Amino acid sequence: MTGPRSICFYTPSTDPSGMGAHVLDLIAAFAGTVDVSLMARELPRTQWLLDRAGELGAETVPLPSPRHPRFGPVVTGFLSARPADVFHCHVGTGSEDWDGVRLARSAGCPVVVQTQHLPYLLSSPRRRHAYFRAIAPVDRLIAVSAGLRRTYERIGVPSGSFTTVPNGIAPLVQRLPRAEARQALGLEADQPVVLTVGRLTHMKAQWQLLDAVPDLLARFPRLAVVLLGDGPLREALVEQAGSLGVASAVRFAGHRSDARQLLAAADVFALPSRCEGMPLAALEAMEAGLPVVATRVVGSEEVVVDGVTGALVPFGRPAELGAALARLLADPALRRRQGAAARRRYLAGFTRDRMAQETAAVFAELLRTAARPALTGSPA
């Protein structure tokens, strides 16, 4: 066998967001040539993932909580009735999955692969030991960036256990004209616009962007800063914008299913994250031909080329973030040049097809060997 005939994708995430989009891109790439299925939690926040996977041709399996007595029988029952050549698990750090890969192995799946979407930043020794127990049944770990991979190697995961497959996204099929995108967001045709996309969370750290707005407004009085996304920090961020006196310039647009279309409204894309695996939002902005100003953190620093496709600034320094945004807002020619370079970089290395091909190569390699090499590392 040179490649899988059937793949079962699985995520235990209760809020898959970017990880879910990644899984859908893989399903779209494999569907039609391979029998695909998806197991995901049965929750309001995950229903979109199950629905979209079904539209793409995957058989979907809604799962109860891993603590529910039905969880094990549902997983093993499906895999026994519909055997998968590859069980492909998608997790953040892996600490959220205690049972999926173990059950897949017990059900007889010949290849079990786990993609790590977030860097390992946990400090608890107990959680670290639990992580090593969780990956024991796994044949291969996939890291979505080289920097992410190094965070796992530092805690004792053998380098040979990992393959790095950088994230990729499909090109947007139909673009929204700039004027329509701006109209949809209530923006004027000629005002400067900084836009960011992401859940409003501590990890995405939109507070840094808001802290930069007062100085930006002093230079660009008609500036609009648009936050696409929702999350637990929305109320705090709205309060922050008010306390900074910039509420009129900041637009909280909420979650939008057409977020990629609305990128056309932006002059510059901002990504002030505390940490990333490899940010899909930055890739989407690059695909749209936008320069990206991001923090120099794991994942982002492998996407953005400082001074070429945008700028990288230290995390926790809003003044430097604002200065980088101001340079681009003040120079239309620089924006165009760096935006074009960003799109070329996307096309050269961050497409969905490239990601799917490299993932398929991992599956084929493991299916050829058939015998599973144990991941024998121990916590450092």
Keywords:
about 375 residues; alpha/beta; Rossmann fold; 7-stranded parallel sheet; 6-stranded parallel sheet; elongated; Glycosyltransferase involved in cell wall biosynthesis; glycosyltransferase activity; transferase; Glyco_trans_4-like_N
Can you describe this structure?
The chain is an alpha/beta fold and 380 residues long. The chain has two domains: 6-170 and 352-369, 3-Layer(aba) Sandwich (Rossmann fold), CATH 3.40.50.2000; 178-349, Glycogen Phosphorylase B (Rossmann fold), CATH 3.40.50.2000. It contains 15 helices and 13 strands. It has a seven-stranded parallel β-sheet with strand order 3-2-1-4-5-6-7, with helices on both faces. Helix 6 (146-153) links the parallel strand 6 (140-143) and strand 7 (162-164). Helix 8 (206-219) crosses helix 13. The mean pLDDT is 94.
- Name of the level-1 CATH class of the largest domain: Alpha Beta
Unreliable segments of 5+ consecutive residues: none
Strand content: 15-25%
Q: Structural class of the helix and strand makeup? A: alpha/beta
Oligomeric form: single chain
Mean pLDDT: 94
Shape: elongated
Instruction: Estimate nothing, just give the exact number of structural domains.
Output: 2
The major beta sheet can be summarized as: 7 strands, parallel
Q: Largest sheet, order of strands side by side?
A: 3-2-1-4-5-6-7
* Fourth-tier CATH superfamily name of the largest domain: Glycogen Phosphorylase B
From the alpha carbons, calculate the radius of gyration and give it in angstroms. 21 Å
Q: Compute the number of helices.
A: 15
H and E string: EHEHEHEHEHEHEHEHEHEHEHEHEHHH
Distance between the termini: 37 Å
Helicity level:
40-55%
Q: What is the count of β-strands?
A: 13
